Amino acid sequence: MDGRAVAVTGAASGLGRHIAVELLTRGRPVILLDRDSDGLDAAVDELGGQGSRATVSAVVADLSTLDGIHAAADELTGRSDLGGLVNNAGGWLPGHQYPDADPDAWLSAVTLNLLAPMLLTQRLWPRLTTGGGAVVTIGSSGGIGDDAYGSPEYAAAKAGIRRFTTSLSARTDVRVMAVVPGWIGLERAHREWAALSPEQQHDVGPLIPPADVAGVVVSLLTDGSPGEVVDLIVTA
Predict the structure, then answer these.
(1) Order of strands across the sheet with 30-34?
(2) Residues 6 or more apart from 7 whose CB is under 8 A from it?
(3) Could you give phi then psi for residue 225, rounded to 5 degrees?
(4) Would you call 62 helix, strand, or coil by DSSP?
(5) CB atoms within 10 A of CB 135
(6) At 106, is the secondary structure helix, strand, or coil?
């Protein structure tokens, strides 16, 4: 991993931006991927101007479609210095959720949250094998447990991320790992958490600082074991 570039999906803002900053502070070039082209431009300008000795580049990609995933993979496979991949892009898609959502809508959510990490990892595997590359995927506490959940397609995809990761524990040519955080303390989450009742806040537990998640991601890229899953879920 020393000195080699790391691709971070969903990096125009939010947790992806935090991960990119953490990588840059450790001197690693980053490739930011996002479907928000304006956000990407702003991120490259901001991160590239922070005095880091590492470089920042960007790829516009919509990872909720198979065409977008393949286009992103085509761009990344051309990077001879690629040494890592962080599958961070994900989340609920707006509108109705399964079973009320149109099939195309909930299939897009499954594509973004599960198929994109799997397909990008597979497409980049030959490149990452050189020099012992690493992949870290961001899971979610929404994929754990047996209780009801507001977005079944998201929960099912995130549950799949855990098993996808552990199923590759025997592969050492590319280390595939995952981080499974609770509710991450990004701006919108702080607003939503503040609107909860004290009882609901107790049930949810404290928000996870984004920097903590980013630190674990970068540590796994450097020293993590194949198939390792780190749960970052804080209970009250």
Answers:
(1) 56-60, 30-34, 5-9, 82-87, 134-138, 175-181, 229-232
(2) 30, 31, 33, 59, 76, 79, 82, 84, 85, 86, 124
(3) -100, 150
(4) coil
(5) 27
(6) helix
Residue 16 in contact with residue 214, Cβ under 8 Å? no
d(CA 230, CA 128): 22
What tens digit of pLDDT does each residue of 202-228 get? 666 677 888 999 999 999 999 999 999
Q: What angle (nearest 5°) sits at the alpha carbon of residue 47, between those of residues 42 and 51?
A: 140
Q: Which uninterrupted H or E stretch holds 231?
A: strand 229-232
Quote the CA–CA distance of 59 and 37 in Å, as a whole number.
Answer: 8
pTM (two decimals): 0.92
In tens, the pLDDT along 11-22 reads 999 999 999 999
Q: Tokens in use for 185?
A: 């303390």
List C-alpha distances in Å: 196 to 9, 63, 203, 227: 30, 32, 10, 35
Cα separation, 31 vs 59, in Å, equals 7
CA-closest candidate to residue 209, choices 185, 191, 225: 185
